[in-house]
Design brief:
Shape: globular
CATH topology: Glutaredoxin
CATH architecture: 3-Layer(aba) Sandwich
Helix content: 25-40%
Number of strands: 5
CATH class: Alpha Beta
Radius of gyration: 12 Å
Number of helices: 4
Distance between the termini: 22 Å
C-alpha cells in the first residue's frame, strides 16, 4: 500500500484513472491498526483491479474533512477521482471491504 499525504493525495487519488481504495487512518486509532494487516492482504489479492493507498488523517486533517471523512477507520473507493463507495467505523471490516470491491469493480 502506498502512503499518500496532503501533497500527493490529489495526484494519486483524485487525478488517477481507474479504481483507488483509500484507507483513512490515524496514529491513535486502534481499530485502524487492527484492520491494517487484513487490508494489506486484500490489497495484494486485488492489486490488479485497484490501487491501494493510505492517508494518515492526523497529518492531513483538512484533506480528510474536504473528503468528508468524519470517523475512523474510513475505507473509500474512488473511480477516476470520484467517490463510489465508502465504509466507516464498525462497517469497515475485511469482509465488507472485499464485498465493496467485488460489487463495484466490474
Amino acid at each position: 500500500m502506498l502512503n499518500v499525504d496532503k501533497g500527493t493525495f490529489e495526484e494519486e487519488v483524485l487525478n488517477a484513472e481507474g479504481y483507488v481504495l483509500v484507507d483513512y487512518y490515524s496514529d491513535g486509532c486502534v481499530p485502524c491498526q487492527a484492520l491494517l494487516p487484513e487490508l494489506e492482504i486484500i490489497s495484494e489479492k486485488h492489486a490488479d483491479k485497484a490501487k491501494f493507498v493510505k492517508l494518515n488523517t492526523s497529518k492531513a486533517r483538512r484533506m480528510a474533512i474536504k473528503q468528508k471523512v468524519l470517523g475512523l477507520p474510513t475505507i473509500t473507493l474512488y473511480k477516476d477521482g470520484t467517490k463510489v463507495a465508502e465504509l466507516t467505523k464498525d462497517d469497515a471490516t475485511a469482509k465488507n471491504i472485499e464485498n465493496m470491491l467485488v460489487e463495484n469493480i466490474k
